[in-house]
Amino acid sequence: MNAVIYARYSAGPRQTDQSIEGQLRVCTDFCKNRGLTVIDTYCDRHISGKTDERPEFQRLISDAKKRRFEAVVVYKTDRFARNKYDSAIYKRELKQNGVQIFYAAEAIPEGPEGIILESLMEGLAEYYSAELAQKIKRGMRESALKCQSTGAGRPLGYYTDEQKHFQIDPEAAQTVRTIFDLYIKGEPNASICELLNSRGLRTAQGNAFNKNSINKIIKNRKYIGEYKYNDIVVEGGIPAIIEPEVFYLAQAEMERRRTRKKPKSPKAEYLLSGRLFCGHCKTPMQGVSGTGKSGNKWYYYYCSKARGKTRTCDKKQVGRDRLEKEVVDDTVRYILQADVLEDLAKKVYAAQEHQNDTASEIAFYEKKLADNEKAIANVLRAIESGVSTKTLPARLQGLENEQTVIRGELAFLKGKRLAYSQDQILFMLMQRLDPYPGESEQDYRRRIITDFVSEVYLYDDHLLIYFNITGADGKLKSVDLAKIEAGEFDERITSSTKRRARRTW
Fold it and tell me: Most-buried pick from 64, 374, 389, 492 (CB within 10 A)?
C-alpha cells in the first residue's frame, strides 16, 4: 500500500524543526512495521493546526483527490488538525477518495476509546452538514419552482438576468451549436477542443476546453429547454439552443463511443488492510486477486513471506469476503452488545474529559502571550525613542505574526471543550448496532471495522481480534505473542490489555 507522511509543528513548547524530524522518524518506522511504502512527505512548519490554511496540508488533500496514495500516516491526531470539525470534514473527504489515516505514536487519540469518540464526532459533523444542506435545499427548491438559477453553475450559452432566469447568450450559443455539429459528425473530443481553443473560445468558467467539458455539454438537457432541479422538471423552462432531434443524435453518438470502450473493473477494496497480520510470522497480510478458469474474480489475503522464491512462512491465503465477514460477526457478537456499549460509553466519556483538560496548555500560551506583548512594547519604545536600525521593523513584524499564532492557539484551547453526556454517547453508540437505512453491506462492514477493530492476527485454526477497548487499568499493554501461540493467553492477561476474541478458523 502506498502511503505518505504528514508532519506539522506550531508555536507550542519546544516546537522546532527537530519536532518535524522526530515525527518523520516515528512515522517512517511505523510504515516499515505495517508494510506501507512511503512515496512522499508533507511538512508544515510553524503553522497552527486550528486552521486548514496550510500549504502542505492542502497539497496533501489535492493529491488525495488525484488518488496518488492509499494511506496518510500522521504522528498524532492533533498534527492532522486541531479543529475537530475541520478534522471530520477532511477525514471524510480522504475516505471518499479511498485514503486511510494511521496515527504512528498513538493507536488512538487519548486511548483506544478515542477512536470511537472521533467517529462520533465525524458522525455529528455530518449530521450538522446534512441539516444545513436541508435548509439550503428548501431555499433552492423555491427558486427551482420559478425556473430560476440555483447557483449550481451556468451552462455555456446562457446568462442569468436580474430575476435569475436563464437567457441565451448569442455568441456563446453558437459555440454550443458548433460542438454538437462536430460531435455528431464523429469528430473526437480532442479535435473539437483543439479547434475551439485555437479560436480563443472558452468554457462558461473561462477555462480552455477539455474532453470532459465536451461530454458535459453534449449530455446537458438544458440545451433543449429542459429545466431540472432534483425532482422538479419543467419542459420549456429555459429557452432552447439545440433542436431535440440534434440533441438525440448526439446522445446516440455518445452511446456508440461508450460501447466501444472496455469498461474498467472497480478497484478491489480490502477492509482489513493495515490491521491484518499473519499469526505465524506477525507480518502484515496483503490483499491479492486472481481470475479462475470460469473467468470469475477471486479475492484473498496472503502473507507476503509465504509467496515468492524465498518463502519463510507457510501461512495459507484466505478468502477476503469470508474473513471480513467473520471479523465483523465477531465484533457484533463481542462488542455491539448493550452491556459492553454501556461500559464503552463510560470510557469514551472519560476520554472526552481527558481531551478537555487543557489548563496546562492554556497557562503556557498565556505566559507566552505576556512575554510577546512585553517584547512588542520594548520594540515600540525603542522606535519612539529614536533608535533606528534595519532589524527593528522586521523584529516587530515577527513578534506581531507570533502574537497572531498564539492568540489563535488560545482561542482554540478555550473553545475546544466537548460536551457530550454519557447518555448521549451511549445513544450514539447504540445507533451502530444495526446498518443505517440504505447502508450497503460493504459500507456497514467498513464502518464496523474502522470504528472498533484495532488488529487481527490470523492463524491456520483461529483468529485473534483486538478491539479498541482498554482493560480495567485503562492502559494498552504489549502482549507476548509467543505466549499466545503456546496457549498461555488466558483471561487474566486479556483483562488488563485489549479486549479480545478467540475463534476457531
Answer: 64
Letter for the amino acid at 204? Answer: A
CA 90, CA 71: separation in Å to the nearest integer? Answer: 14
Q: What is residue 66's DSSP assignment?
A: T
Contact criterion met (CB below 8 Å) for 168 and 223: no
What's the predicted TM-score (pTM) here? 0.46
Give the pLDDT confidence of 322-377 residue by residue, as tens digits.
899 988 888 888 778 777 788 778 877 777 766 666 667 777 778 888 998 999 99
CA distance 285 to 304: 6
pLDDT 10s digits, 134-183: 666 677 777 888 888 876 568 999 998 888 899 999 999 999 999 999 99
Nearest partner of 327 among 186, 454, 189, 198, judged by Cα = 454
Q: Report the half-sphere exposure of 178 (CA within 13 A, side-chain side).
A: 16
List residues bridging with 276 in a β-sheet.
456
Q: What is the DSSP letter of 148?
A: B
8 Å CB contact between 336 and 429: no
Count the helices and strands in the chain (H runs, E runs): 17, 15
CA distances from 235 to 141, 147, 210, 414 (A): 17, 10, 29, 55
Residue 24, phi-psi category: left (phi > 0), alpha (psi -120 to 50), beta (remainder): alpha
